[in-house]
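From the methods appendix. Each design record in this collection lists the tokenized structure first, followed by the designed amino acid sequence. Records were kept in a plain field format so they could be parsed without special tools. The example shown here is representative of the layout used throughout.

RECORD:
FOLD TOKENS (195 positions):
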């Protein structure tokens, strides 16, 4: 029995002719392709590193809030109002409750701004704090609008409102989600012009 591989190697004139139609590359083309593949590998690795760093940063920020005694005390003051689920007027609450609501709203506004600007991992915050974020905004929505009118500052808690809209009222469509994956951050949408 004749081995076809040995037969091909034994006839060196056939080996280049058999491979030539598949690889008609000049040496400089091979170098260019190798450089392009190396660049793609580097870009992929850099993107993964940024994504991992963003997730780690998000976990650190969430955990800081969980272990912060001041924030936990404020959350315990706010929790009965959130469990009730009815809209409230923060202006009618006691000074201690107002301060607690302000602290909790500011923290969630900070998280929403971080998500909107691509600094925090949205999926991680969505999985960990979606219910609390949506409920907090819905309970405080009328108070937020009153504060905006009173202070004449329409940007007050705008990121929290954006996040509530995104998670509750109108989640991103398929094309927007695809674009956000490519950009590696959420699309910010229209912003309120500061006064």
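DESIGN:
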């Amino acid at each position: 029995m004749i081995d076809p591989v040995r037969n091909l190697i034994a006839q060196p004139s056939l080996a280049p002719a058999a491979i030539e139609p598949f690889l008609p590359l000049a040496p400089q083309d091979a170098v260019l392709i190798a450089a392009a593949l190396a660049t793609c590998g580097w870009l992929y690795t850099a993107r993964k590193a940024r994504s991992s760093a963003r997730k780690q940063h998000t976990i650190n920020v969430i955990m800081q809030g969980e272990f912060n005694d001041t924030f936990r005390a404020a959350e315990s003051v706010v929790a009965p109002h959130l469990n009730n689920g009815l809209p409230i007027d923060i202006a009618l609450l006691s000074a201690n409750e107002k301060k607690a609501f302000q602290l909790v709203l500011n923290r969630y506004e900070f998280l929403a701004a971080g998500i909107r600007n691509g600094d925090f991992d949205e999926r991680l915050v969505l999985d960990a704090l979606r219910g609390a974020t949506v409920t907090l905004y819905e309970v405080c929505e009328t108070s937020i609008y009153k504060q905006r009118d009173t202070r004449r500052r329409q940007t007050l808690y705008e990121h929290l409102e954006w996040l509530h809209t995104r998670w509750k009222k109108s989640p991103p469509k398929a094309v927007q989600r695809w674009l956000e994956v490519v950009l590696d951050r959420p699309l910010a949408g229209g912003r309120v012009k500061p006064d």
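APPENDIX NOTE: The chain has a mean pLDDT of 84.
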